[in-house]
Write a structure and sequence with these properties.
Distance between the termini of chain B: 26 Å
Distance between the termini of chain A: 47 Å
Shape of chain A: globular
Number of strands of chain B: 12
Structural class of chain B: mainly alpha
Largest sheet of chain B: 2 strands, antiparallel
Shape of chain B: globular
CATH architecture of the largest domain in chain A: 3-Layer(aba) Sandwich
Helix content of chain A: 25-40%
Helix content of chain B: 40-55%
CATH class of the largest domain in chain A: Alpha Beta
Largest sheet of chain A: 9 strands, mixed
Number of helices of chain A: 13
CATH topology of the largest domain in chain A: Alkaline Phosphatase, subunit A
Structural class of chain A: alpha/beta
Oligomer: heterodimer
Chain lengths: 464, 827
């Protein structure tokens, strides 16, 4: 193959849309073509930490002492009128947070005692207390967080980023997903929707074979695999001369990439190669799919050019177990230290400025108590799903530090100032990546689709 | 590293990404305007209006700015405050021209957007000068059969299709390519008609005498093959979003595979497409419907269903109805009616009220979800279903187990009746017993007068569980129930309507609970007229769709068939024939095919046969440099089709090459080996264990692989298969390293390499050379060239040098062959 073929490949890919930029860069071996932002980006990577189930904002980030007055009494009508909840009946009382809150850092941001490590890094973080979403069930809520739409079929945030900005690595995927168990909407939480499947998140599992079919078949060593791939490429080159189809050139390159990935994938997963103090800082232990391991891997991925890392941590659907020693404090312990360590680690390596970290649930939780389980049993107090006002944390890449943005009413129920919708989160995150969310579009079923649908505003106040 | 090529993509309006195709659009108008040529409204003007103006000045009354409407002449030429947006023949007097030209950002249109390009402005000026003629969107006009045009080389054309293609090539100065070599043509034909490549033995006769007659005979043979229906059912099942589970959080399994088998049979029988349509949309409403006609209505029972505990029943139902409306509109009308769900369509002439008139056809359906009950709000997918006949032996075994089940149930009832006499004394002793079922504990904690019926049941049940004369036979009953389930005749989900009238409403902004205007079932006014005598039911809708007056259905259908074969539709957006889409590459050909389709009795085989017997189809896929330069997407068809196979066909092709493929047809979905634990990754799935199939079922055709929406068969997803979450009219075609890993390392493909190696080594009488050539032909159909044979021999030597035994070397060689681009490509 020669320049002539590259040019033809380019011509043929011409109408194929933005995704083909990756193809061009692949064939032209020119990495700069992969990045086509609308304006100078503030961040090149995203780490999305999704707390599956919806963390309780009033127990973590948004103190509401007023709730104590309504324990055991119905919440004011003005609050609940016309609202729907999955499991809380009408007339439910409040559940005051049993946890102490304090101001931290120079910024004086409020954190509860459940997350001391996050609190310690208050000045690196920004807390948004006025988040809103459209969906109050897990499946739909997860879809909304990741795709901006509550039903199946749309591309995820990570897929849009892959489609819009392309790859930064020649041996690892653009968009990687890690989870410590199932999530409600399944693989649609990293699905490509109507975008090409190369933009789908690649689920990394723990262990030596993070990607399906990454290991050689039994009895085949790397040398033999290399010979086989060499043979495939040699014959494909002859086919390329015969048919002059640029797709064959792409396939030859993809086999080379696959061979690279077979080496770089397992290497990436070997966290045992990290120094002991790093493992300790995260609380990571080689083997297994702990959140600590996933956070450490996230840093290793960002370091190696993965653009979008999505971690999904189960255990935040606290319909019960708000009080000690319940599930909520347990989940916080699992989450708190590794998240803090990830921020420190990225910062020390100079990667935090380049990396946008988003910590959020698909929604928050009600200030009201849920005393009956979904199966109808009485139980220890918990909180139901809540979509109208919840909190999230942002850090890194172009985010203002030490800010607490937005506020909710006395009950942590509705935003009273600066509401930020999930669409706005998407618009703002894309903005930091150098992408105008109104211009990142894909035509499907006769319509230009966007991650932000017809909504979304860049929240300028959150930008550094 | 991850690259994509997709044929259905178009560049985004707004000029980003900036593409060669876009450049062409920008340059063409300049040339046109300069030459003072006629402006074609559909080709030149409508795209500008649709992309830059109609969002605010289109059919949507609510979104319309300043009351100005530019999608029709009357609105555009209307006098408004002493000015007219368009004054025919007088661009200088037309406000539109002033507003797109001004430098004042507060006045320049589109407001807040990038200005129109100079080329676009010139086009609009020219158009207004020449009278500003509007045309009705071509797709809404009934197609008439055009005369095939005269061509430069009448001898090349084998049927009228070729004349349309060649005439267009003539106009651009391109020449068709030569004929494909016979082996490549056979591979193409087998893959297009039955989705399985031929074995060397199947085509040896043809290769010896590759005459026209022999080719036509092959076409007939393959059209009659039972594998034809399996291959052509696949894209239809993508449209029908057929799957074996509900989707969403629980992703419960559902039994609807008899619908899939119905589709395969319908294609094999070449059921006329109008009947195919009516039976799927409304088979249940036909007079005395047959079992098959009921099974066919599974089409619309394929909607995903969100059964999670927190979902609201009316929301779940609405989501399914919306899915049915949008799917029906995409499949038969090539129309994005879904845009009108929340607001009147921005570009196409559909109002929100019309959306809900269409919706009303489906609103009559019986309830399809039930609650788990007992306070648990998890939902199950039920609704109407039918039972399928089963062989006599199975039926009698089923009957025997059922009788036994009933007998044991009766014994339990008697035992329970006798036991409950002791219940009151038992209850008195249990007030503080915490070991019982939590429901019973909770019920016992309440004062007697506050206990509900379900409380009392919980207490009674907890008591009975303590009595061995009840508990023991209950266990037996569970065993019998499991056996009964295994022997039960299969069922399949079907559509059914409520008996009485149902009132439907417009849902404002698509929100449920916002009952707007009451509406009756009906169809969009911009399309052909709805005969008032048709029933106001799905049957009437199906009859309206299959009316000869319908301008869309035949066009949309032949275009999809065309796209399956050529990799690209005559209308590139196979799912959308709206006003905003690209002009067809061969509009007359599209109309000719559409009319031929209806005149030929809606026979799909007729259209497929016509296509694969053309000279166009039989061309070599290798283009001259001039062709690649001028037409890299092959929109003009100067070369034959060459592209990667769909996911299922890749697996089928590799299994066929290795001799493993089973041709067993129909029946419940099969579970070929896949990586461990994938089903466990579905949240709260009721059946997390993947029941890996044994024996022949491991090697069935891809169409029979289970379709679990929440955890699809991974190698299919990697090769762009639909996850069946919604209607897909055309899959993407990507090229990624994960695909390489799948073909290299997935145990299915390793097994296939072993089998191919064995097949080849069993030819003990053959030389290495012959064995290599045979293996190559099994994978890619054609014989290797001298250079390829040399390379194969070199590889074999290399593998032998590095292997402990001969078999290992051949397995490595087979792995090379099964990974070739050509092995997974239609030539």
């Amino acid at each position: 193959m020669g320049l002539e073929l590259h040019r033809r490949a380019f011509l043929r890919a011409g109408a194929a849309g933005l995704g083909s930029i990756a193809l061009q860069s692949l064939l032209a071996a020119d990495d700069s073509a992969a990045a086509a932002p609308h304006f100078a980006p503030r961040a090149r990577h995203v780490i999305l930490l999704h707390m599956l189930g919806g963390p309780s904002q009033v127990d973590l980030l948004d103190p509401k002492p007023a709730l104590a007055q309504f324990e055991g009494k119905p919440m004011p009508d003005s609050i609940l009128k016309g609202k729907q909840f999955a499991f809380v009946p009408n007339g439910a009382g409040a559940l005051a947070s049993p946890y102490k809150f304090a101001k931290h850092g120079e910024s004086g941001a409020w954190f509860s005692e459940l997350t001391p490590h996050l609190a310690e890094r208050a000045d690196d973080l920004t807390v948004v207390r006025s988040m809103q979403t459209d969906e109050f069930n897990h499946g739909a809520g997860e879809l909304f967080l990741h795709t901006g739409f509550g039903r199946l079929g749309r591309p995820t945030f990570g897929s849009w980023v892959s489609y819009g900005l392309g790859s930064l690595s020649d041996s690892l995927p653009t968009y990687v997903v890690m989870a410590n168990g199932p999530n409600a909407c399944g693989n649609s939480a990293w699905g490509n929707g109507f975008l090409a499947s190369v933009h789908q998140g690649v689920k990394f599992r723990s262990g030596e074979e993070p990607v399906h079919y990454l290991s050689n078949p039994g009895g085949v060593d790397r040398d033999r695999q290399g010979l086989v791939i060499g043979g495939v490429s040699a014959l494909n080159r002859l086919a390329l001369e015969r048919y002059e189809d640029p797709e064959i050139a792409t396939r030859i390159a993809q086999y080379e990439m696959a061979f690279q990935l077979q080496a770089s994938g397992p290497e990436l997963m070997r966290i045992e190669n990290e120094p002991q103090h790093v493992l300790e800082a995260y609380g990571a232990e080689p083997g297994g799919a702990s959140y600590a391991n996933m956070c450490l891997l996230a840093r290793r991925m960002v370091e190696r050019g993965v653009r979008f890392v999505q971690i999904m941590l189960r255990g935040w659907d606290h319909h019960t177990g708000i009080y000690l020693p319940g599930a909520l404090p347990r989940s916080c312990r699992i989450m708190d230290r590794p998240t803090g360590a990830l921020i420190d680690d990225l910062k020390q390596r100079g990667l935090l400025d380049d990396t946008l970290i988003i910590w959020t649930g698909e929604f928050g939780r009600t200030p009201m108590v849920q005393a009956i389980s979904p199966q109808g049993f009485t139980q220890d107090p918990g909180r139901d799903h809540h979509k109208d006002g919840f909190s999230l944390i942002l850090a890194g890449g172009g985010i203002r530090q030490g800010l607490t943005y937005g506020a909710t009413d006395d009950f942590g129920f509705q935003p009273t100032e600066n509401p930020v919708h999930v669409h706005d989160l998407h618009a703002t995150a894309l903005h930091l990546l150098g992408v105008d969310h109104t211009k990142l579009t894909f035509k499907h079923q006769g319509r230009d689709f966007r991650l932000t649908d017809v909504h979304g505003r860049v929240v300028e106040e959150l930008l550094a | 590293m991850w690259s994509a090529t997709q044929r259905t993509r178009r560049s985004c309006p707004g000029g980003w990404p900036f593409r060669v195709a876009l450049l062409a659009v920008l340059l063409a108008p300049l040339a046109l305007a300069g030459a003072g040529l006629d402006i074609n409204f559909t080709r030149d003007i409508r795209p500008i209006l649709a992309e830059r103006c109609l969002q605010c000045h289109g059919p949507d009354e609510e979104a319309r700015a300043s009351g100005l409407r530019l999608d029709e002449y009357a609105g555009a030429a209307e006098e408004r405050g002493g000015r007219r947006a368009i004054v025919p023949g007088a661009p200088a007097a037309s406000e539109l021209m002033a507003r797109i030209r001004t430098d004042d950002p507060a006045r320049r249109m589109p407001l807040g957007g990038d200005p129109l390009s100079e080329g676009q402005i010139q086009l609009l000026e020219e158009w207004i000068s020449s009278g500003a003629k509007y045309e009705r969107h071509w797709a809404y006009e009934k197609p008439k059969r055009p005369q095939p045009p005269p061509v430069s080389d009448a001898g090349w054309a084998r049927n009228p299709i070729d004349r349309f293609v060649l005439s267009k090539l003539d106009a651009t100065g391109l020449k068709p390519s030569g004929a494909a070599e016979p082996a490549v043509l056979m591979r193409r034909l087998y893959l297009d008609l039955i989705g399985i490549p031929p074995s060397p033995e199947q085509i040896d006769d043809f290769l010896t005498h590759p005459t026209d007659e022999a080719y036509l005979a092959k076409v007939e043979e393959l059209l009659e093959s039972p594998q034809y229906g399996e291959h052509w059912a696949r894209p239809w099942l993508d449209l029908a979003r057929y799957a074996d589970s509900n989707g969403y959080q629980h992703d419960d399994p559902r039994e609807i595979w008899p619908y899939r088998d119905w589709v395969v049979r319908a294609f094999n029988d070449d059921m006329p497409f109008d009947r195919f349509t009516v039976e799927q949309l409304a088979g249940d409403l036909l007079e005395a419907p047959s079992l098959d006609q009921l099974v066919a209505t599974g089409f619309n029972r394929n909607s995903p269903m969100n059964g999670s505990g927190g979902s609201k029943i009316d929301e779940v139902r609405n989501a399914m109805l919306v899915d049915r409306v949008n799917t029906t509109a995409t499949v038969w009308l090539g129309t994005t009616l879904g845009c009108a769900q929340c607001h009147t369509h921005k570009y196409d002439p559909f109002t929100i009220e019309e959306y809900y008139r269409f919706y009303a056809y489906f609103d009559r359906g019986v309830d399809e979800t039930v609650l788990h009950g007992g306070g648990n709000t998890r939902k199950y997918y039920v609704g109407a279903k039918v039972e399928l006949p089963v062989p006599k032996g199975r039926r009698s075994r089923y009957a025997a187990v059922k009788a036994q089940h009933e007998y044991v149930k009766m014994l339990i009832n008697q035992a329970e009746f006798a036991a409950v006499a002791d219940l009151p004394t038992w209850v008195e002793r249990q007030a503080t017993n915490r070991d019982l079922h939590p429901n019973a504990v909770r019920a016992l904690a309440k004062p007697m007068e506050e206990r509900t019926e379900s409380d009392n049941n919980a207490i009674r049940n907890a008591f009975l569980e303590t009595r061995p004369e009840v508990a023991e036979p209950r266990k037996e009953l569970e065993k019998l129930a499991r056996r009964m389930k295994a022997l039960a005749p299969p069922t399949t989900l079907i559509m059914a309507d409520k008996p009485g009238p149902v009132q439907s409403f417009v849902l404002e902004r698509g929100q449920i609970g916002t009952h707007g205007k009451a509406v009756e079932p009906g169809t969009p006014a911009a399309l052909h007229t709805l005969d008032p005598d048709l029933p106001r039911s799905r049957l009437g809708l199906a009859q309206w769709i299959t009316s000869p007056e319908n301008p869309l259905t035949a066009r949309v259908t032949v275009n999809r068939i065309w796209a399956e074969v050529f990799g690209r539709g005559i209308v590139a957006s196979v799912e959308d024939f709206g006003r905003q889409v690209e002009t067809p590459t061969h509009p007359e050909l599209l109309d000719w095919l559409a009319v031929e389709f209806v005149d030929g009795g809606w026979s799909i085989k007729n259209i497929v046969r016509l296509i694969v017997t053309t000279a166009t189809y039989r061309q070599s896929s290798r283009g001259s440099p001039a062709v690649l330069e001028r037409d890299p997407d092959n929109t003009l068809l100067a070369v034959g089709p060459r592209f990667r196979l769909p996911a299922e066909a890749i697996r089928d092709a590799v299994l066929a090459a290795s001799g493993l493929l089973s041709l067993k047809m129909g029946g419940p979905p099969v579970h070929p080996p896949q990586p461990d634990g994938l089903w466990k990754e579905i949240s709260t799935a009721t059946d997390p264990d993947y029941p890996t199939s044994e024996g022949e079922d491991r090697h069935r055709r891809g169409i029979y692989t289970v379709r679990r929406r929440g955890a699809p068969y991974p190698s299919f997803t990697t090769f762009d298969a639909s996850t069946r979450q919604d209607c897909v009219a055309m899959r993407a075609r990507t090229n990624s390293p994960l695909q390489a890993l799948t073909l290299l390392n997935d145990p299915v493909y390793v097994e296939a390499a072993d089998a191919l190696a064995k097949l080849v080594m069993d030819r003990t009488a053959a030389s290495d050379r012959d064995r290599l050539a045979y293996a190559f032909r099994r994978a890619v159909t054609r014989a290797p060239s001298a250079a390829e044979l040399r390379e194969l021999a070199r590889l074999l030597d290399q593998f032998r040098e590095t292997s402990d035994h001969e078999a290992e070397a051949w397995v490595s060689l087979a792995r090379v062959l099964l990974n070739l681009d050509e092995t997974i490509t239609k030539g």
